[in-house]
């Protein structure tokens, strides 16, 4: 019996390593990629000039009467990729285009572009992504919430959408040109 178990174990390991299964569609190999529970994107550019990009996005936000949205993260971080992935879906794309000027800032291993975070009143990058929302005037609106996005991949699309949609009512009240 022990010999049979060893033979079956070796056979299973070999099938998983080579991508084969027994022909039974119910048997899935270990290397099969599970479908993501969230969208995924990699918009963080290590070579970008973060200070210049942020200044341009905030200037555009002010000129257009929109909110600034600074996402500080990295492509190695599944939470950063998940949030960026949601932002690329049609629903989020409309919300962001109508109400925000978005910029992505690469933070490396949480050791890059820390001066950008400090300019918004953050001591550093606690987790990725760190998400900063500014009023059209440039005032930071979510300093306490900014570092809490390190679980973005675990949040539902509805929860994320509601968070960013909440600011759009403020823009309307300020008469900043947001529909």
Describe this structure in words.
This protein is an alpha+beta fold and 179 residues long. It folds into two domains: 1-34; 50-174, Glutaredoxin (3-Layer(aba) Sandwich). 42% of the residues lie in helices and 11% in strands. The protein is built from six helices and three strands. It has helices spanning 2-18, 50-64, 78-87, 90-99, 114-119, 157-174; strands at 67-73, 100-106, 130-134. It has a three-stranded mixed sheet with strand order 2-1-3, with helices on both faces. Helix 4 packs parallel to helix 6. The longest helix has 18 residues, at 157-174. It is globular and about 35 Å long. The model is unreliable at 1-35 and 173-179 (pLDDT under 50).
Can you lay out the helices and strands and say which pair or pack?
Elements: H1 2-18, H2 50-64, E1 67-73, H3 78-87, H4 90-99, E2 100-106, H5 114-119, E3 130-134, H6 157-174
Parallel strand pairs: 1-2
Antiparallel strand pairs: 1-3
Give the strand order, joined by hyphens, for the main sheet.
Answer: 2-1-3
CATH superfamily of the largest domain: Glutaredoxin
- Given the structure, what is the number of helices? 6
Q: From the alpha carbons, calculate the radius of gyration and give it in angstroms.
A: 22 Å
Basic shape: globular
Task: Specify the biggest β-sheet.
Answer: 3 strands, mixed
Helix-strand topology string = HHEHHEHEH
Unreliable parts: 1-35, 173-179
What number of domains? 2
CATH hierarchy, class of the largest domain: Alpha Beta
In what range is the share of β-strand residues? 5-15%
- How many strands appear in the DSSP assignment? 3
Q: What is the CATH architecture descriptor of the largest domain? A: 3-Layer(aba) Sandwich
Query: Under CATH, the topology of the largest domain is which?
Result: Glutaredoxin
Tell me roughly what share of residues is in helical segments.
Answer: 40-55%
Would you tell me the overall average pLDDT? 79
- Structural class per helix/strand content? alpha+beta
| Distance between the amino and carboxyl termini | 72 Å
């Amino acid at each position: 019996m022990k010999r049979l178990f060893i033979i079956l174990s070796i056979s299973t390991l070999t099938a998983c390593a080579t991508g084969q299964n027994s022909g039974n569609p119910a048997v899935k190999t270990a290397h099969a990629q599970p479908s993501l529970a969230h969208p995924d994107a990699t918009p963080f550019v290590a070579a970008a000039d973060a200070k210049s990009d942020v200044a341009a996005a905030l200037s555009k936000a002010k000129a257009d009467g929109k909110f600034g949205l600074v996402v500080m993260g990295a492509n190695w971080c599944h939470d950063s990729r998940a949030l960026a992935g949601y932002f690329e879906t049609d629903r989020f794309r409309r919300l962001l285009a109508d109400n925000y000027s978005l910029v992505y800032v690469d933070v490396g291993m949480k050791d890059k572009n820390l001066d950008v975070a400090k300019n918004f009143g953050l001591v550093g990058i606690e987790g990725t992504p760190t998400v900063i929302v500014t009023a059209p005037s440039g005032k930071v609106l979510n300093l306490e919430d900014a570092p809490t996005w390190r679980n973005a991949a675990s949040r539902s699309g509805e929860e994320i959408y509601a968070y960013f949609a909440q600011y759009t009512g403020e823009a309307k009240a300020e008469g900043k040109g947001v529909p």
